[in-house]
Design a protein that fits this description.
six-stranded mixed sheet; two-stranded antiparallel sheet; 5 helices; 8 strands; 37% helix; 22% strand
Length: 180
C-alpha cells in the first residue's frame, strides 16, 4: 500500500512536467481577418512579442473571472515592459455571447489594463495550433524565443501563482542584456 502511494505521489509531482510536453505550437499562430487579431483589427502573430518574456492568457470569455487573484497579483508585480508583456487572447468562438458584446467589453477592460495586449481569436486558431482538447482558461509563459516554459489550465491556487511569478522574474533577470 505504501509503495502505491509513493508511485501515485510521484506521478502527480511529475504531471506538470509531462503535461508541458503536450503543448507546443505546430506552427506560428496568426490571427487576421475573420479569424481575429488585435482589438483594432490589425493582424496578430506570436512573433510580434519576440524578444520579450510573454505571459499569454488564452480565455474562453465565459471563464474570464476564474483567476482574478492571479491577474491582480501579476499586475501588482509591475514587470518591466521593456522585457516582458502580457497578451490576453479571447476565444470568442467558445462563448454564447455575440462577438460585438465581447469586443465592447474587452475594449473597456483594455482601458483599465493598459499594460496588457488584447487579441481576439474568432476561429479557435490557438486551440488548434496548440492541440488543446478544449478551451477554458490557459496561461502560458514563453521565453524570449517563444518557447513554452510553463503552462497551467484552469484555476490557479496561491502556490501556482507564486510559482508563475517566480518563473517570470527568473526569466526576466536571466535576460538582462536583451533589449527590444
Amino acid at each position: 500500500m505504501h509503495n502505491k502511494f509513493r508511485k501515485f505521489t510521484l506521478f502527480f509531482l511529475l504531471c506538470p512536467i509531462i503535461a508541458l510536453a503536450e503543448f507546443s505550437f505546430t506552427q506560428e499562430p496568426l490571427l487576421s481577418g475573420n479569424d481575429g487579431g488585435y482589438t483594432n483589427g490589425d493582424e496578430w502573430r506570436l512573433s510580434d512579442h519576440a524578444g520579450l518574456v510573454t505571459v499569454l492568457f488564452y480565455l474562453d470569455p465565459d471563464e474570464r473571472s476564474l483567476n482574478e487573484e492571479l491577474e491582480a497579483r501579476l499586475e501588482k508585480e509591475n514587470f518591466p515592459l521593456s522585457k516582458s508583456c502580457s497578451v490576453v487572447v479571447i476565444n470568442t468562438k467558445q462563448s454564447w455571447l455575440p462577438n460585438f458584446v465581447i469586443e465592447n467589453a474587452i475594449k473597456k477592460k483594455q482601458k483599465s489594463h493598459p499594460k496588457s495586449i488584447f487579441v481576439f481569436d474568432k476561429s479557435n486558431v490557438l486551440m488548434k495550433t496548440l492541440g488543446l482538447p478544449k478551451p477554458g482558461y490557459l496561461v502560458l509563459l514563453l521565453n524570449v524565443n517563444g518557447d513554452i516554459l510553463f503552462h497551467h489550465q484552469g484555476r490557479f491556487n496561491n502556490s501556482e501563482i507564486n510559482q508563475l511569478i517566480s518563473l517570470i522574474w527568473n526569466e526576466i533577470n536571466s535576460n538582462q542584456n536583451i533589449a527590444k
